[in-house]
Amino acid sequence: MTDHAHLLPSSGIALDVACGRGRHALWLAERGLTVRAIDRDGEAVATVRAEARRRDLQIIAEQRDLENGNAGLGVETADVIVVVHYLHRPLFPALIRALRPRGLLLYETFTHAQALRGKPTNPAFLLAPGELMQLVQPLDIIARREGVFEDRDVASVVAKRE
Prior knowledge:
The structure is a single chain. With 162 residues, the chain is α/β, with parallel strands linked by helices. 37% of the residues are buried. Helix content is 21%, strand content 33%. The protein has a seven-stranded mixed sheet. It has helices at residues 23-30, 42-55, 92-98, 131-135, and strands at residues 13-17, 34-39, 59-63, 78-84, 99-110, 140-149, 152-160.
């Protein structure tokens, strides 16, 4: 994500999906974005809230299960959406709907080749070659990569809604 920091707006709303302990949410908030961070792990969400308070950052952290059929991301609610190391294919239409015009989706997760290195190994959580570019359609792809990076097999895109 830091490789594409120059593409981020200086203000606006960012959504960190499956935020975990908030590394990306905190980074985005430090750059002036108001962040909505979502994860199903209540302990992780509490950690994000506490760290945001400690740093006086604009982060709303929510505990939510994104796989229950009601993602609740809204329509044109985010200028930036970040998803890292999480894959739930049925969520892609909701992600695309949640992007505002000219909004950016930054998405990176593991490919099938990662299973040969270790976790994750469940094919449901691993992308097939070229699959991520198909999942983000009809967004315009600004940057993409797929392969081995930092000893992990991943695919990533930076995509823009027109």
